[in-house]
Design goal:
It comes from Phnomibacter ginsenosidimutans. InterPro entries: DUF2911. This is DUF2911 domain-containing protein. Pfam families: DUF2911. With 191 residues, this protein is of the alpha+beta class. The protein is built from 2 helices and 10 strands, in the order αβαβββββββββ. The chain has one domain. A 7-stranded antiparallel beta sheet has the order 1-2-3-6-7-8-9, with no helix packed on it. It has a 3-stranded antiparallel beta sheet with strand order 5-4-10, with no helix packed on it. It is globular and about 80 Å long. It starts with a helix and ends with a strand.
Length: 191
Amino acid sequence: MRYIMRRIIAIIVCICFTGAAMAQLQITEPDKSPLDVSYHPHGYPILKFQTKTAPTTPLARVIYSRPQKNGRTIFGEVVKYNELWRLGANESTEIEFYRDVTIGKAKLLKGRYSLYCLPQPGQWTIIFNKGLDSWGAFSYDKTKDVLRTSINVANAEAVVEFFTMVFDNSGNLVILWDNQKAMLPIKYAAK
């Protein structure tokens, strides 16, 4: 009988602690600009587990938030021309290269960088910066810039609702949002 009473008391105590813990838990609403990751090669994590032909590490990865157009005019209004933009929303976009790369004519060592942009009509300046884990462009420090390069911007084939960054089959980073499309050419060093 004592054994049964002890078990009942233990169960009641566990229920009370679980209830108290759940009362402290605050469930948040889904983010309006969800976090996303794009790999080169495309779908790298799945390839790694499904096949034995996937490389042991990807060549590149970009982590970014995906704001929505929501009927707004993005470029020139939401994203101001000639003002620093974090390429997305929330935390600064980060790109990681798992081997050295060439962007334009400049070499960039393997590693992780924050990505920023100075947009202008028809051309963007893409900035690779060593300042990591920052919110937006608020703590941007120009002295930590590693590389700046200009890329052309063209009209997209269709309006893109969610800000999108994806690597094409050659490993170039394609950036799409609203009616704009830009491509950052990337050449990867051999192993």
